[in-house]
Request: fold
Amino acid sequence: MSGAPAIETSGLRKTYRTRRGRQVAVQGLDLHVPAGGVHGFLGPNGSGKTTSIRMLLGLINADSGTMTIFGHPVPDDLPAVIDRVGAIVESPKFFPAFSGRTNLELLAGAIGAPKSRVGEVLEATHLADRAKDHYAAYSLGMKQRLAVAATLLKDPDLLIFDEPTNGLDPAGIREVRDTMRDLGQRGKTVLVSSHILAEVEQVADTVSIIGRGHLLASGSVSAILGSQGTTVVRVGVSEPDRAATLLAYEGWTTRREGTHLVVEGASDPAAVTRALALAGLYVHELTPVVPDLESVFLDLTTHEQLGAPPTSRASRWGGRK
Amino acid sequence: MMRLLVVEIRRLWLRRLTWFTLFAGLLVIGLMGVATWQQAQPVSAAEQAQSDNDYQQALKDWQANGEQMLKDCLQQQAEAQKTDPKADFQCQAASQAPQREWFGRQPPSFLEIAQNTTRNAALTVGFLVFLIGASAVAAEFTTGAIGTWLTFEPRRLRVLTSKLVATGVTGFLASAALVALLVGTTYAISRYAGTVGALPSDGLRALGLLTLRVTAAATLAGLVGASLGALTRHTGAAIAVALGYAVAIEGFVRAWKPELAPFLVDPNLNAWIGGQSTYYVATCGRSPEGYDCTPVEYTLWQADGARFGGIVVALLILAALWAFRHRDVT
Reply:
């Protein structure tokens, strides 16, 4: 199974029975998560991220489709690969009346991990001092750290974090981010599902964006953002209205942004300055607009919600689709 | 599997509810001990004098009026038999002189009290063990910990089987401890009161078998609780199902269709614990006197109770395993 992607799904589908009939949660999802590094799994709330993760972990049954983890078909072959997978699905869930240590000891006992491992992961997640406290008395950040500690009991190759920073304070968010980055750098595969894009952008090597239960886009973050960076420029010019008319006549799409113009489709920014200079309009500022993941995400998912195709910018966005 | 079982047993004994339940069992044993204390007390001199006096009075009364009482009784019976030929006023009793042992209290022996209290405690012990099983499994669903658990051991049948077996082991140990404590307390009280009485080996053997049957029934109750916990995924719902069944099905069906008693829990439980239980079905039809209903007695034997209990528990366990295997864990 070496060289197999960490996660691969094909045509994954899940519907739920509701009072209003069957509701589609995941609709033909094709997901490819390469082994090694951090993979962001993005989508608005209700887009099917958690449902997909639950199906991968065998917690809920898929209606149709196939899934593999490190080449093992799941859920049938999940027992063969579960020791390589650590997961936190939604919020951490442990026995509230037991201490953090007891919760971990029970899990360690279930997988045959030595008791000493419990101490190690408690130290690693800075919970050793509070290990004897009841889980119910933990702050959300501590609960999240305990969940991370639980995943580390197995020393897994694939870690699945579902909305890992929900409810955390900035320090906690940073801690989780550092943990994910560190794990990714150590060759582990981290699948982090989130709707907080700035957080994912800082750690993810690759991303998949889903909306309404299916894949909208997927690929490496750097390629995606890099390819977007050269197409939009922000231009400071003395007569913006005249400049806008001129550039529109030349075939560029423009819009006013205060005293500046934003020019789209400017794959060669020098052409913009040349056209303006020939008309006697002199540029005093020209800045390439580098899109962030959030703008791409919003563009894709907003149109998905509205049922319309994404704008040309989003559809040009690199990677699988 | 063994690893999971050890972890589950450990978890059960770490649960506060397990200990609260055992503590509740101790309280019940304490209350039963008070009743035992009152029963086991030897007869006091005042009680003895009172019963002697009552006996002498009754003897005197019988010697003076016994013959007349018998005559009156037979006469009233003959009157009644004119309309109902089967009328029987038990007049022979009036012909018999009062006996000394009919008067005053005789403190029961240890074996008598122990048999009664163990039988009476069966339902309470069973319910407590049911609670241990139901809450242990259902709490995993209400806290969501079962999801975490399944990311460590995804083989669901193994997971639930380990929980059921752990509940069985814990239920057996808990109920055995409670029943042993009950019998031990009864013996201690009887001994202190000096009313232990004879301890024949067959009596002790019968008591030993009774405690085993009660323990077995309580263990099965624990398995029922665990299965209902897995099916309903909520302790309150599991208890509501059990109580609802007891009230709505057992009570209603027994009153409405007494011939269905062999398919109800209560008569079968009584048969298992007590050796046999009887139920009556009215057989009605036309007779020379008109429309007549005669109650016919039926007996459920210990083996019937065992068979019924085994089948019910097996079906519930299978249903729980099937549901846990196929239902989503959200």
Remarks:
- The mean pLDDT of chain B is 89.
- The two ends of chain B are 24 Å apart (CA to CA).
- Chain B has two domains: 2-42+107-326, 45-102.
